[in-house]
């Protein structure tokens, strides 16, 4: 776990690629979740009547409940998307970077 | 009707109390129920099973890694269940069902706020936590900052969170057990305290994890069963259910329209922030990330946990709506048989009455046992997190400066667990008649403003120095406590003043930015040589956070 290994990891262009791609992906997803969630909270605070409208004429499902159910599902799907990509693509890249740094150690 | 109106008016406060326990208002409602044998027998089965696991776990708990993190060998799915078990307290089942029963849409909205923190934890924190931490989250803040002072600070705010959360859970547990099992309050508190001490001291994280996994499975199964049985009475049709519910509920068609919970946007945002980032700063939740083998499993555990939590919240939503008709229209569940009067056992008994209505005494007994198991699992997780702050952070790293032997450290953590258990029992008994709702708000507020800013900055901001971290940590801790003390739940409800000095129920919107600001100002103006070393050390920490290279691995058995 020497300092030189960390240095070799850092200069590896693949490491930069990993950090940039994963960082951008994670921040985008975070931004989507925060925007939708706080947007919805504010919409509930400012337009409660709209949230109480039925989704269609005579339906018992209101806009608010429908949006909420879809947010539950959508947020979880985003999580699944992140885990899928991180556990395959990003982890493979990480392993490769570490392997290269180890090899140069010998 | 009066009870419902009251519930509706104090929704914000109620919502907070719902987080930790099914806190019935302290007045009335707490008379002892006849001893419930079905519940006691099922609970004994659970205790016997968990004792068996503790016995098995004790033979596998030898090193500090075993004690704090179950050797780091828990799989993502197991940990996901355990996190869900840690997160969904008896409140989730009882308090939130009651919230949906009383106010429909608002209850659902509250659950979404409770859920929305998980994706953020996954995207921003899960893998860095696993890559940098070992036993407690202060391992991360102390990675490049001055170990002694930063760990002391983290331990103080962890213990603050743990103590307040423990009191809320204990008081809730005592009242709940009195209601469900017909046991005496003090006996219930002592029982919970002793069982918790046994699980944690003998079985450490291995036993705690398995108690949580079993409890999560019981909760998911029991909830689903009640939901399916209740929903079948409406032919599994949401339309039929809603038509009937809106026709009998006092809110009528407004049942599915936003009510009072988030009417004030500032309070709404503050509550959202407090729930979201409070979750990301709770020491017993953060600790769970160190029990898995690597970052991959850490990510999976969040995915499983959030899936279970989201599923269960929707089950509760349906349960609450079904209860409006099945419980709300049945005179047997009201005192004196008056429909719309006071529910027997108080407003939080909705889920239990529903279980009895659809599944008889057997199902009621099972759900009561689930509620008790839930409380036990949550207090065990809390006690372990508190004990690790004392033994790992304070004793081993700060006082002994890393020179303590593993055996000594484990001994200290066991003593700490027993002390915490005794403190929890005493405080639980002392606070029996108090309204403890504010303590949960305080726990989440301190977690969001005291723990979270320092933790996230130490992982993301190169410029953070020890000085900045200390000001942010203590500043967040004290301002969160001060805001809660000045808010309605303490200033008016506990101290008896007329008007609250701080108009919102959650301090997060104000205390969190303050902590970030303090961190920024006092790091930027820190020109000491130590600060420079700390900033230089960020690079290595950053590489380890990103790649997991050098991270603590799973111990071999």
From TrEMBL, chain A:
Entry keyword set: Membrane, Transmembrane, Transmembrane helix
Name of the protein: DUF485 domain-containing protein
Highest taxon listed in the record's lineage: Bacteria
Keyword Transmembrane helix: yes
Lineage: Bacteria, Pseudomonadati, Pseudomonadota, Betaproteobacteria, Rhodocyclales
Gene Ontology CC, one term: plasma membrane
Regions crossing the membrane: 25-47, 59-83
Native source species: Candidatus Propionivibrio dominans
Pfam families to which the protein is assigned, alphabetical: DUF485
UniProtKB/TrEMBL annotation, chain B:
Residues spanning the membrane: 38-58, 79-101, 107-127, 148-167, 187-210, 217-236, 266-290, 302-327, 362-391, 412-431, 437-457, 469-492, 504-523
Biological process (GO), any one: plasma membrane acetate transport
Sorted UniProt keywords: Cell inner membrane, Cell membrane, Ion transport, Membrane, Signal, Sodium, Sodium transport, Symport, Transmembrane, Transmembrane helix, Transport
Localization in the cell: Cell inner membrane
Protein's membrane topology: Multi-pass membrane protein
Superkingdom, taxonomy of origin: Bacteria
UniProt signal peptide: 1-22
UniProt keyword annotation of Cytoplasm present: no
A single Gene Ontology CC term: plasma membrane
Gene3D superfamilies in the cross-refs: Sodium/glucose cotransporter
Record Pfam families: SSF (PF00474)
GO terms for MF: acetate transmembrane transporter activity; symporter activity
PANTHER family, sorted: CATION_ACETATE SYMPORTER ACTP, SODIUM/PROLINE SYMPORTER-RELATED
Homology family: Belongs to the sodium:solute symporter (SSF) (TC 2.A.21) family.
NCBIfam families to which the protein is assigned, alphabetical: PRK09395.1, PRK12488.1, sss
Name of the protein this chain belongs to: Cation/acetate symporter ActP
Organism: Candidatus Propionivibrio dominans
């Amino acid at each position: 776990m020497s300092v030189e290994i960390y240095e070799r990891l850092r200069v590896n262009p693949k490491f930069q690629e990993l950090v940039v791609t994963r960082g951008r992906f994670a921040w985008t997803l975070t931004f989507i979740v925060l925007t939708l969630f706080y947007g919805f909270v504010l919409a509930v605070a400012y337009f409660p009547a709209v949230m109480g409208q039925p989704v269609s004429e005579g339906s018992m499902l209101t806009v608010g409940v429908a949006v909420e159910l879809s947010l539950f599902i959508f947020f979880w799907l985003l999580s699944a998307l992140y885990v899928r990509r991180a556990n395959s693509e990003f982890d493979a890249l990480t392993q490769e970077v570490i392997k290269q740094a180890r090899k140069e150690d010998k | 009707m009066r009870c419902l109106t009251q519930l509706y008016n104090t929704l914000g406060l109620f919502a907070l109390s719902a987080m930790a326990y099914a806190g019935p208002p302290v007045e009335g409602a707490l008379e002892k129920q006849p001893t419930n044998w079905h519940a006691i027998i099922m609970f004994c089965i659970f205790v016997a099973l968990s004792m068996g696991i503790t016995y098995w776990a004790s033979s596998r708990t030898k090193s500090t890694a075993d004690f704090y993190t179950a050797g780091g060998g828990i799989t993502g799915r197991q940990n996901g269940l355990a996190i869900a078990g840690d997160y969904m307290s008896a409140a989730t089942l009882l308090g939130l069902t009651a919230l949906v029963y009383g106010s429909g849409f608002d209850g659902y909205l509250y659950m979404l706020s409770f859920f929305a923190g998980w994706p953020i934890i996954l995207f921003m924190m899960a893998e860095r936590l696993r890559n940098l931490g070992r036993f407690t989250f202060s391992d991360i803040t102390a990675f490049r900052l001055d170990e002694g002072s930063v760990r002391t600070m983290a331990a103080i705010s962890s213990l603050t969170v743990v103590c307040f959360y423990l009191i809320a859970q204990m008081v809730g547990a005592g009242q709940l057990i009195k209601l469900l099992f017909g046991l005496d309050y003090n006996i219930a508190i002592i029982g919970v305290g002793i069982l918790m001490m046994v699980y944690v001291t003998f079985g450490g994280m291995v036993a705690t994890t398995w108690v949580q996994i079993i409890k999560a499975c019981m909760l998911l199964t029991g909830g689903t069963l009640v939901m399916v049985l209740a929903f079948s009475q409406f032919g599994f049709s949401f339309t039929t259910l809603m038509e009937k519910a809106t026709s009998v509920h006092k809110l009528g068609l407004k049942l599915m329209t936003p009510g009072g919970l988030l009417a004030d946007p500032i309070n709404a945002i503050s509550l959202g922030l407090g729930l979201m980032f409070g979750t990301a700063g709770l020491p017993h939740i953060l600790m769970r990330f160190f029990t898995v083998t690597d970052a991959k499993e850490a990510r999976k555990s969040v995915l499983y946990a959030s899936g279970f939590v989201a599923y269960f919240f929707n089950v509760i939503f349906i349960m609450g709506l079904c209860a409006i008709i099945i419980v709300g229209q049945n005179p047997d569940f009201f005192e004196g048989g008056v429909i719309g009067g006071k529910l027997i056992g108080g407003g939080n008994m909705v889920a239990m009455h529903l279980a009895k209505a659809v599944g008889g005494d057997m199902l009621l007994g099972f759900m009561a046992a689930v509620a008790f198991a839930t409380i036990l699992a949550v207090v065990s997780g809390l006690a372990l997190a508190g004990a690790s702050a004392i033994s790992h952070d304070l004793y081993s790293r700060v006082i002994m400066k890393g020179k303590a032997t593993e055996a000594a450290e484990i001994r200290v953590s066991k003593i700490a667990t027993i002390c915490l258990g005794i403190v929890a029992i005493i405080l639980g008994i002392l606070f029996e008649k108090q309204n403890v709702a504010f303590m949960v708000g305080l726990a989440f507020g301190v977690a969001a403003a005291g723990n979270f800013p320092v933790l996230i900055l130490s992982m993301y901001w190169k410029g953070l120095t020890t000085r900045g971290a200390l000001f942010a940590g203590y500043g967040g801790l004290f301002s969160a406590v001060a805001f809660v003390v000045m808010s309605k739940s303490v200033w008016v409800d506990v101290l008896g003043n007329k008007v609250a000095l701080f108009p919102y129920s959650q301090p997060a919107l104000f205390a969190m930015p303050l902590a970030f600001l303090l961190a920024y100002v006092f790091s930027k103006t820190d020109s000491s040589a130590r600060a420079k070393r700390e900033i230089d050390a960020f690079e290595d920490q950053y590489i380890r956070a990103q790649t997991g290279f050098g991270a603590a691995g799973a111990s071999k058995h």
